Amino acid sequence: MTTEDVSQSPFLRACRGEETPRTPVWFMRQAGRSLPEYRALRADTPMLTACRTPDMIREITMQPVRRHGVDAAIFFSDIVVPLAAVGVDVDIVAGTGPVVGQPIRDMAGVEALRDLTPEDVPYITEAVGMLREELGATPLIGFAGAPFTLASYLVEGGPSRTYAKTKALMHGAPDVWHALCGRLAGITASFLKVQIDAGANAVQLFDSWAGALSAADYGMFVAPHSAAVLSAVARPGVPRIHFGVGAGHLLAAMGEVGADVVGVDWRIPLTEAAGLVGDRALQGNLDPTTLFAPEDVLAHEVRRVLAEGKAAKGHIFNLGHGVLPETDADALTKTVEYVHRFSAR
Ligand SMILES: Cc1c2[nH]c(c1CCC(=O)O)Cc1[nH]c(c(CCC(=O)O)c1C)Cc1[nH]c(c(CCC(=O)O)c1C)Cc1[nH]c(c(C)c1CCC(=O)O)C2
């Protein structure tokens, strides 16, 4: 399969705002816990070990593509992988998420963070290369965490509901905050470049928790750093997707920092989102809990999201956030069938 075939895939065409024979669909967190074959493969392997093992990365990335027939693969990794690769003491605890041994809250902590080089992550280059060959005309999405979302784990030491320590650093020591986000922007851009250079066809920058910020704080403390990442990875033919949860009030700003496609959660209709992001394509936004609803409700909601997506310059169907671990894999397969059937032109 040639590169040209990939560039004409429905997913990449929709990212560019071009006509597609049907609306492309993939799911955030499709590669992971909802699949029994994933659980079987991961049984005795810690998460970060799996993320450093090319054969496991390749297999876990392929599982949802084979099973559901989605229009894009997302590279199996985690947003903390590049942090661990530059020596941050971070682990992923099952059922909790990333936990950081020594939280960063002062300039000395920031200065201990170094940039990432391709030699730090040979397993990423190797796995992306293998996947590009295996995927044929199906695009591969690389990804990374945005500076704010990464900083929230580093400052809090783990997941948080309020981001109180993160916001305290932002407001109380803005010089430390900007230095931290500057270093994280460098690491994130380097990590994305490794994936693009190895053959990733698109990248998604996850600023999952940015929705916790006011528009004013986002503009002052976060936007410049996300903009630095997105401008560093601008490459012809490689669209940049930018996504946050509960970020309806930030959608315009998240587009303006340099995204080609803006990801939207389920709280705001795509018709409204389309009015906020200008010419950019939209990705989203089925409520992930709809996958637990009766089939007729699921079908109705898929039709609604497709209809609302017509307001956008290009629409990639997705969930409004990641697949919940309890999700029945068959409901995901059914959703792909519905999206393809209801959107056939
Ligand atoms: C915030 C964030 C993280 N990681 C990620 C984000 C941004 C996306 C989002 O908003 O959901 C991104 C991520 N993490 C993972 C992927 C794989 C690709 C995919 O399927 O989308 C992606 C894209 C694998 C993973 N990352 C994680 C798992 C589960 C690990 C396991 O199987 O034990 C997987 C498959 C762990 C993780 N890592 C993180 C969390 C919150 C968790 C879940 C904690 C839990 O509930 O167990 C940090």
From TrEMBL:
EC primary class: lyase
Limits of the Uroporphyrinogen decarboxylase (URO-D) domain: 24-33, 141-157
Reaction(s) the record says it catalyses: uroporphyrinogen III + 4 H(+) = coproporphyrinogen III + 4 CO2
Entry's transmembrane regions: none
Domain of life of the native organism: Bacteria
Subcellular location: Cytoplasm, Cytosol
Identification of the protein by name: Uroporphyrinogen decarboxylase
Gene: hemE
